[in-house]
């Protein structure tokens, strides 16, 4: 697939942004060594002329003593191979954190044992002496691109420190630097024996709102003795260089600018910068920052790495503009646009996709039409998800699955990709993981079951007693999508199944991922369909291996909890009310194997969330298996583009196709910001079902075919200033045809 927006872990886009900016920072800093004094004077004069940012800027100093970086066999030494920019930004970038495991892992420097990435990042945050939820994330994020960063950053960093310290005429510093070279050589010799690398300190520049503006990584003590506070005077040259580059080329967003005021998170470094910062026309705070964040609501914004679709350069390196015809794809200039326009084969070129992408862009207003009070904020292209969640106290439980906010020390662990905790499943409250830090978000279950079928968020919210200001739709999109398929789409497309009159349903959730990490949200199906016994079987090789063959039961009423060895877990979770009539339960089963290898009874229904057929090879085996089963199979996608790609993959794999996608009324309201395009992406945005190839001698229900393809433009779009001259030349041949 050309676009991976909506499928890729946000962490990887964020790491790519940090990595790309740091590479540019190191490269430009290294070129200043030839004429250091004159170049710095020129840069300082340039910064003094910059407009002033009214926001306060913060320079954070984050030491690390406990977490190291271990390079795997996939990360070879040298500037060519290894974990380079192409690994995060290339034509086939990784989609998940686990894809980086052959190249880099985090290890504990205290006990030498490898741990989970989340645990190591959490330990790093503890050593950084902060309690803000975002801090451990920042301390750990730059680690994946460590190999190249280390090799590129050390020479210019050491040369700059040496040159600037020489001007201070401090002989003791030269002696100290000489003493440090011997252990550094010994460390380099040990690296061949898989000794973990040490990210000893992180310098981070942000504004008061949390926008990251610059970053510097100090490996293996190159900064002197940052782990020991008395040695932080050696940080001053590097910190000053970082501040200058952050003002001239801010990583986060906006044009070059200087802050109205700067505060520093280290007392020694604050003192050393007092004579340097005024050169830039910036006011330094009288005292250093004594706490992690200058404001209680401080969070790091989840900045997407805006990049050119062709060369993958970031927005802080080049000016990105969308295609003038479709306004969907971002390019850094006409050269990349022309290269993408003429790609071969033709069906992967932008010339082929441009009119189709333009049609997809026209659906942006329809997808953003939601009844919530916060709709305008969360459907904006500049939506700051972390700030939205933090302002509402949604920083624990399942809400951590939606953002990059990591709980600080003493808070529950972020369950990234983890198995649902058994203790949490058995505590008697099915909605605990859905709550925030404030009052309960989910009201009590209504006494009477629904009297009519719900076809919109507004109808469901009204019956459930939820305010339209509640963000619960972001989590409930999964069970409500299943409900919508059962009650609306299956009766429309497969009326012969009479699914609404069935008392039990067996549903396979194929290629399951994030929805299994949110498994307790499916409890809501018992509220919406109280008289149907449901069995959900989550299938996919991306599920945690330890959850294989796991089985537990959720029942409507009764406070008791029972364990049945050999048959899984039975949890009786109380809904808080006693209801009339017979009660059913919800069976949850897990299989961590590809779907085509699954053995067992035929399901009544198959569902897949945000499927992305073109992103995983197992779909080429899964789809033929579904073709042989010929059961109703419904899938969601995060964009209309994904639906078109899925139709093509289905045709290749089975000779069948897909139905025309339709907007899902129970899609997530949070817009997913893309890296290299401006298309509207939402979790579970569209729904379609598979149209199987007719069996020999039989017939199959035909589904509406895809919309007719719009005409393909004959020439690539050109800038507006030249379009008028080209328009007449391009219209003539079209009239002749």
Automatic annotation (TrEMBL):
It holds the Pfam family MSS51_C. Residues 71-96, 110-193, 547-584, 698-737 are annotated as: Disordered. Residues 720-737 have a biased composition (Basic residues). Residues 705-719 have a biased composition (Pro residues). It comes from the Eukaryota. Residues 125-136, 170-183 have a biased composition (Basic and acidic residues). Residues 110-124 have a biased composition (Acidic residues). SUPFAM superfamilies: HIT/MYND zinc finger-like. This is Zinc finger MYND domain-containing protein 15. It comes from Mesocricetus auratus (Golden hamster). The lineage of its organism: Eukaryota, Metazoa, Chordata, Craniata, Vertebrata.
């Amino acid at each position: 697939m050309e676009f991976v927006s909506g499928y890729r872990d946000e962490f990887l886009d964020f790491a790519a942004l940090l990595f790309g900016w740091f590479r540019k920072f190191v490269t430009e800093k290294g070129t200043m060594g030839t004429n250091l004094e004159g170049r710095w004077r020129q840069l300082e004069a340039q910064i003094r002329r910059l407009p002033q940012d009214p926001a306060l800027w913060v320079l954070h100093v984050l030491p690390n003593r406990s977490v190291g970086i271990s390079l795997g066999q996939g990360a070879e030494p040298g500037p060519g191979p290894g974990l380079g920019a192409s690994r995060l930004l290339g034509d086939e970038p990784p989609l998940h954190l686990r894809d980086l495991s052959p190249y880099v892992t985090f290890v504990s420097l205290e006990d030498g044992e490898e741990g989970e990435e989340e645990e190591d990042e959490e330990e790093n945050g503890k050593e950084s002496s902060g309690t803000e939820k975002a801090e451990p994330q920042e301390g750990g994020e730059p680690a994946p691109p460590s190999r190249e960063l280390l090799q590129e950053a050390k020479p210019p960093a050491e040369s700059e420190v040496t040159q600037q310290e020489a001007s201070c005429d401090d002989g003791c510093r030269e002696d100290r630097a000489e003493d440090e070279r011997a252990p550094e050589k010994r460390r380099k010799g040990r690296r061949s024996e898989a000794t973990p690398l040490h990210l000893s300190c992180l310098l981070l520049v942000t504004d008061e709102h949390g926008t990251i503006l610059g970053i510097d990584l100090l490996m293996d003590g190159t900064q002197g003795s940052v782990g020991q506070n008395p040695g932080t005077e050696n940080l001053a040259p590097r910190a000053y260089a970082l501040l200058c580059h952050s003002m001239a080329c801010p990583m986060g967003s906006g044009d070059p600018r200087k802050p109205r005021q700067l505060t520093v998170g280290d007392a020694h470094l604050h003192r050393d910068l007092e004579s340097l910062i005024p050169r830039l026309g910036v006011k330094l705070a009288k005292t250093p920052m004594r706490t992690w964040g200058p404001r209680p609501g401080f969070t790091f914004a989840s900045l997407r790495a805006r990049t050119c679709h062709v060369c993958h350069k970031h927005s802080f390196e080049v000016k990105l503009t969308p295609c003038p015809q479709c306004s969907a794809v971002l390019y850094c200039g006409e050269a990349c646009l022309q290269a993408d326009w003429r790609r071969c084969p033709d069906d992967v070129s932008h010339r082929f996709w441009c009119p189709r992408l333009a049609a997809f862009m026209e659906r942006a207003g329809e997808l953003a039409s939601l009844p919530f009070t916060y709709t305008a904020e969360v459907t904006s292209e500049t939506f700051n998800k972390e700030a939205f969640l933090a302002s509402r106290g949604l920083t624990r439980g399942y809400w951590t699955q939606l953002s990059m906010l990591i709980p600080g020390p003493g808070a529950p662990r972020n369950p990234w990709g983890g198995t649902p905790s058994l203790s949490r499943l058995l505590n008697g409250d099915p909605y605990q993981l859905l709550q925030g830090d404030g009052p309960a978000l989910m009201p009590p279950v209504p006494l009477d079951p629904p009297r009519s079928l719900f076809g919109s968020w507004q109808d469901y919210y009204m019956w459930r007693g939820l305010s339209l200001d509640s963000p619960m739709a972001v989590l409930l999109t999964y069970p409500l999508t299943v409900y919508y398929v059962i009650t609306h789409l299956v009766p429309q497309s497969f009326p012969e199944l009479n699914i609404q009159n069935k008392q039990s349903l067996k549903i396979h959730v194929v290629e399951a991922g994030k929805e299994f990490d949110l498994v307790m949200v499916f409890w809501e199906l018992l509220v919406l369909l109280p008289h149907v016994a449901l069995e959900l079987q989550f299938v996919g090789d991306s599920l945690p291996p330890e959850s294989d063959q796991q089985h537990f039961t959720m029942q409507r009423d009764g406070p008791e909890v029972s364990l049945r060895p050999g048959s899984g877990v039975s949890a009786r979770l109380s809904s808080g009310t006693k209801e009339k009539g017979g009660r059913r339960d919800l069976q949850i089963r897990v299989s961590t194997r590809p779907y085509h290898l699954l053995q067992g009874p035929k399901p009544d229904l198959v569902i897949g969330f945000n499927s992305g057929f073109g992103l995983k090879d197992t779909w080429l085996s899964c789809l033929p298996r579904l073709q042989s089963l010929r059961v109703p199979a419904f899938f969601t996608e995060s964009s209309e583009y994904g639906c078109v790609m899925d139709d093509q993959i289905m045709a290749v794999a089975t000779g069948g196709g897909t139905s025309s996608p339709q907007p899902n009324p129970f899609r997530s309201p949070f817009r997913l910001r893309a890296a290299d395009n401006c298309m509207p992406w939402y979790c579970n945005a569209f729904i379609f079902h598979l149209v199987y190839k007719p069996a020999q001698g039989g017939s199959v229900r035909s589904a509406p075919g895809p919309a007719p393809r719009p005409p393909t433009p004959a020439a690539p779009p050109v800038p507006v200033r030249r379009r008028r001259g080209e328009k007449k030349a391009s219209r003539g041949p079209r009239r002749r045809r």
